Amino acid sequence: MKQSKMLIPTLREMPSDAQVISHALLVRAGYVRQVSAGIYAYLPLANRVLEKFKNIMREEFEAIGAVELLAPALLTADLWKESGRYETYGADLYKLKNRDASDFILGPTHEETMTALVRNEITSYKKLPLNIYQIQPKYRDEKRPRYGLLRGREFIMKDGYSFHANYDSLDETYQDYKHAYEKIFTRAGLDFKGIIGDGGAMGGKDSQEFMAITPDRTDLSQWLILDKSIADISEIPDFVIKDIKQELSNWLIAGEDTIAYSDGSDYAANLEMASTEFVKPTAYTEQLELTKVATPDVKTIEEVSAFLDVPTEQTIKTLVYNADGEIVVVLLRGDDELNEVKLTNHLGADFVEPATEDETIKVFGATFGSLGPVGLPENVKIIADRVVETIVNVTVGANEDGFHYQNANLERDFKVAEFVDLRTAKEGELAPDGGGHLKFARGIEIGHIFKLGTRYSESMGANVLDENGKAKPIIMGSYGIGVSRMLSAILEQFVRINVEKTFKGDYKFSWSMNFPKDLAPYDVHVIPVNVKDETAVALSAEIVETLTKSGLQVLEDDRAERVGVKFADSDLIGLPVRVTVGKKAADRIVEVKIRATGDTLEVNVDDLAETLAILNQ
Amino acid sequence: MKQSKMLIPTLREMPSDAQVISHALLVRAGYVRQVSAGIYAYLPLANRVLEKFKNIMREEFEAIGAVELLAPALLTADLWKESGRYETYGADLYKLKNRDASDFILGPTHEETMTALVRNEITSYKKLPLNIYQIQPKYRDEKRPRYGLLRGREFIMKDGYSFHANYDSLDETYQDYKHAYEKIFTRAGLDFKGIIGDGGAMGGKDSQEFMAITPDRTDLSQWLILDKSIADISEIPDFVIKDIKQELSNWLIAGEDTIAYSDGSDYAANLEMASTEFVKPTAYTEQLELTKVATPDVKTIEEVSAFLDVPTEQTIKTLVYNADGEIVVVLLRGDDELNEVKLTNHLGADFVEPATEDETIKVFGATFGSLGPVGLPENVKIIADRVVETIVNVTVGANEDGFHYQNANLERDFKVAEFVDLRTAKEGELAPDGGGHLKFARGIEIGHIFKLGTRYSESMGANVLDENGKAKPIIMGSYGIGVSRMLSAILEQFVRINVEKTFKGDYKFSWSMNFPKDLAPYDVHVIPVNVKDETAVALSAEIVETLTKSGLQVLEDDRAERVGVKFADSDLIGLPVRVTVGKKAADRIVEVKIRATGDTLEVNVDDLAETLAILNQ
């Protein structure tokens, strides 16, 4: 395709309202434009990336027997009233009336539509399992749309739904999807983790989230593409490195969640769910005598630890929570932090929050800062993190303002109802499978698979007759991929900073894209330097024809622009290979630049297709 | 793909609410389901047809340098207020408010969005022409959605827009689109006509509509596929033929418009615009004396003709119209009908309707039935169809109730201000290019190309600087294809009636689809007759693998259904080739049925791929 025919409105500067680098570059490189808050037009380059990604999905879903269909986006409210979500979904749901004043919504998701479709068409277990999906714009009237494609009001989703007569069948399809997702994201070139999901909001049982990992910014070498003018990163002066780091830090780290993953195994979880390896110590330590000591004006664990000269690991932190109206005392080792999600999940409570000072005084007779488990009334529920069971001779609050106990010991001095994993995992700790150490990263959710069970089939009466002719609710799974946000998720991993040395000896750096090859909008960017040079133009045309015949997709910059403008645009657009047709055109010699490495080589046009085929392997 | 994994909910009967056969079969064959009035889900088979059609479009548009993008469907009302259409578009426009109470619409078309996009990004004539398109659901809150996909509230469109610095460039792109549309519809296997469009509603200049021709029902042979049990159509008893004709006539003829097209040239037009060849006669006829004759109780042309024994061709019909408040007298030859669209277009009037009796008496002093052009006041505007100029010695009303003139002659007895083409063309007349005779057919609009000019760029201030640095409004074209309605348009041409003779000697007929090969959801339907027969199942699997490898898309009916059910479903689904794996499986012999002809042949599986390749040519 000739670039003059494309709509690629590149900008000289970063857009002033972008907060994350992926979005800033999508706008600057002419891939997307905002039409209204949180609503975007995908310009030709972005549309090509999306279509390529859709085709990758289609191939992998066909392989697991999922079939594509297309439901409407404009939905009558009836089914949502049936499922109950018309009222409960909240202000994010776009509601409208048609000319007959009937209620409609713009679909944010299609559980109801698909459940109704299957309810109407399938009556026997013999027609199950069924595994359907669609790729379609979805609508959520976000209160604060932000980060470009990452949180928009109209966005493209792949949403799949499976229908089963029994849970074994659901499990099988769920695993098929898990593997298909892994293949899809791998083919998209992504660094991603499948993590244990919190499926609560969808009423699901098992669920898994797929998170694209936002790259680490400490290792600058991953971010830089050095021009041939620079031999090695070590050559770049410190003040330039500092400027580059400053530029990087100007951009928010994208991703809603912190992921804890193992550097030596498959383990990965949202930090809120992350656990660590727990081994009970086998060594025996003598229990010393419980001693009450004055700790005037000492409140925090750190102050206690310093005042009494005991390590924080030898102290217990006593927290008080109100869980659905009941007071719960929670013990943690002094250097640990409570993970409230774990506490909430463990208690199975709807509502968990720190107790007020009044509630606390009622139970302990003391205020925050001197609380401890010793001598509490028996009817107070005390639960502790697993680690608490492993420490002896600990320092705890004495439930008397200004006093602590030293050498308190479990069972002898206080009792605990349950030991469970309640602490927030820390970076560097052993993963729960013992297979490596935990690393933390921010992640962008790109996919989510759920075992929905009968949440929708029961409320909507979607039954099939089983082997015995008995009506049973259909068992369902649902499977989503955020298609438009993939663009941002990919670019968070594939933007780079080009560094070059000018002929005056200065170092210049500039942002650039570096698309993974299966998703780049075109494979090769052919740039005739001077479109008034007939030899170069003819050679360029020949190259386009040859490469196209060899199966490559080629964008040819046929514009009458200065070469500096062309190169700058080419860096922004970020195709894997740039072929420059310059002064040596008469000798049929062109320059090939491999974007990912910055390497360049001169190639005779007669060898070009073959050279690119080899490089592409 | 295994059929057991597909969602193809075929029905035993035609849906009771369908009026056109294409829609009835789309529902019955499990291609689509209505979700709410005028809003459909495209089930897996329909989705595949749509995707294939989209890809045909993409290839042809790429060839003319049009680039695909994707704008949102949920649009702020702002731009529509700018263009004025927010108020003028009427009740078909879906309007809604977001959570901040801002006005939004669901896009029925995207002139405003695209004009604004280009206005914001392109400032110089050097970046033009630009030619962009998208494929997307559109929304129109139709008062009476009907005929299934032909008139829906959510439907898929391909809408393209071109932007130019001058009209020559627009003309060129308009021609490119015209040819691309012809290629696309030809590849889709359609019988279609490009007709002169009435672009008035879009504010356009030139426009052309593409109409899929609804097939003639008089020639039954085009509709029937005879089973091998029937040698020839002549063998079918008359009472069966009568039943088939009755079944055909149960279905409305689809298509909003009547098309007049030449059987010997490219000429085609909406009947409202259709013209005929007009040649002034060169023969001279002596003018006879004007004679007033009594014609008591004689009103219509037919009555006058019979009463005075003159051919209707020798009479003049005098009509009176009110055009924007002015009285206009219209003369036609007695056997012609006025085409009001031609009259309206000729007068350039907003509002044209027959004059009332009171208005008529005021001008003529007589009532309907005795009107004529002789002796009218000079200030009355008289226009006549071209044919009126060619007849002499005509009979006209005498403007006196109960009297006519005979032998009235132009100039001598009455004057005409203008002669223009005002008559309604008739089937069998010569086309205006003289290249053939007119035939009439009903048509479904599948595409429309417009020269928009500056309708949107002027109202929205979309300018570019020209060669002299002067701001000029961008010149635009717009180009639509109705993608979802294509499904119905194609099927109106490709449904068939299968006729077979039972072994009792009865004749049975049933509806069937017969998809053109480039759009069929799969190429081949492989049907193992008995899925408990291991040999047949294994052979079927081998066939699927072999044909898939040879590049064919295969649907395998792996369901444990009776063979009658499988064959009936196969006829409804309508793939081009059916391969039945039956009793001769052990000998590797299968039956191949070519749907379009009803021909069957037995083929050894080892020769199958090659045989199908030959048949496919």
UniProtKB/TrEMBL annotation, chains A, B:
Catalytic reaction equation(s): tRNA(Pro) + L-proline + ATP = L-prolyl-tRNA(Pro) + AMP + diphosphate
Residue span(s) of domain Aminoacyl-transfer RNA synthetases class-II family profile: 47-516
Superkingdom classification of source: Bacteria
Enzyme category, top tier: ligase
PROSITE patterns xrefs: AA_TRNA_LIGASE_II
Keywords for the protein's UniProt record, in alphabetical order: Aminoacyl-tRNA synthetase, ATP-binding, Cytoplasm, Ligase, Nucleotide-binding, Protein biosynthesis
Alphabetical list of InterPro entries matching this protein: aa-tRNA-synt_IIb, aa-tRNA-synth_II, aa-tRNA-synth_II/BPL/LPL, Anticodon-bd, Anticodon-bd_dom_sf, Pro-tRNA-ligase_IIa, Pro-tRNA-synth_IIa_bac-type, Pro-tRNA-Synthase_IIa_type1
UniProt cross-references to Gene3D superfamilies, sorted A to Z: Anticodon-binding domain (3.40.50.800), Bira Bifunctional Protein, Domain 2 (3.30.930.10), YbaK/aminoacyl-tRNA synthetase-associated domain (3.90.960.10)
Major localization class: cytoplasm
One GO cellular component term: cytosol
Gene Ontology MF terms in the entry: aminoacyl-tRNA deacylase activity; ATP binding; catalytic activity, acting on a protein; proline-tRNA ligase activity; transferase activity
CDD domains: ProRS-INS, ProRS_anticodon_short, ProRS_core_prok
Entry EC no(s): 6.1.1.15
GO annotation (BP), single: prolyl-tRNA aminoacylation
Localization (cell): Cytoplasm
Function of the molecule: Catalyzes the attachment of proline to tRNA(Pro) in a two-step reaction: proline is first activated by ATP to form Pro-AMP and then transferred to the acceptor end of tRNA(Pro). As ProRS can inadvertently accommodate and process non-cognate amino acids such as alanine and cysteine, to avoid such errors it has two additional distinct editing activities against alanine. One activity is designated as 'pretransfer' editing and involves the tRNA(Pro)-independent hydrolysis of activated Ala-AMP.
Notes on the domains: Consists of three domains: the N-terminal catalytic domain, the editing domain and the C-terminal anticodon-binding domain.
Assembly and binders: Homodimer.
Family: Belongs to the class-II aminoacyl-tRNA synthetase family. ProS type 1 subfamily.
Name the record gives this protein: Proline--tRNA ligase
Organism of provenance: Pseudolactococcus raffinolactis
Lineage per the UniProt record: Bacteria, Bacillati, Bacillota, Bacilli, Lactobacillales
